[in-house]
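Subject: Sanity check before I submit

Could someone independently write out the structure tokens for this chain? I want to compare against mine line by line before I put it in a report. The sequence has 275 residues.
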Amino acid sequence: MQIDSDILNTLSKAVRVSKKKGNLDRDEYKKGINASKTEALFLLFEDALEEFKANSFIDENFSTASTLLKGVDYTIKNIEDLCPRLSLSYTKETNSIGIFISAAINKIIKETDTIVLDFAGIEVNYLGYCLTRGNLIIKGSVGDYTGHYMQSGSITIHGNAGEYTGDFMQSGSITIHGNAGDWTGDSMQSGSIIVDGNAGKYTGDFMQSGSITIHGNAGEYTGHSMKDGSIIVDGNAGSFTGDYSKGGEIKVNGEIKGISNNAKAAIFCKGKMVK
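---
Independent answer below. Compare away.
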């Protein structure tokens, strides 16, 4: 369903009628128009949800959402208002919500814009998918694949992150003010990831370049199969550190439980090169 300015005017009909009757002042009228655009986005999400069910490929779903959003007039504030409503109405559709919101953001966000997302406690997946610019601030914890194929911009998470945060990211920065799950920075090409807490297993798995900083501890297989880039762990690292790594650097300021014999990355522990 395409929603252009005429349909948005129809959605705000009740507000306009109230204005004519003198029931709304100018500020309230503006709020009503804003709410109508948010309603338009909500209706588009419901349409997208039906089409998403026809296929399971994330890139196709993202393309579907982007197509539906063409010609739609909305603002960053409308997206922000939409997030808690979607999370309350579609609690289990965490993949679809993330893909739709990401497509909506990519369409309108500018380089210097900041958008604040709050999903009322629901951990949404795929936020920041293919982000090309702008700054995302997420209140609360997120699900998996945050920053998947991220191109540029920044993502700040005020909570924990699930698995595969920043996987295949091309550039930009991700900051997690909490813990991160397994496979953080999986196959990342460039950019930076900072985790204030702990990270799970396989941090930097197949990492090509870029930097990952863990201020807490990292799990097993840190730097597994990494080719280049830098991983810094301020706390301890688990067993099999550097397993099958081909290059890059792993610096651990705490203890390393075990280093793989096949590791070819430069591995440092407490400032001393140990591999």
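---
OP: Matches mine. For the report I'm noting this point. Residues 26-52 form the longest helix (27 residues).
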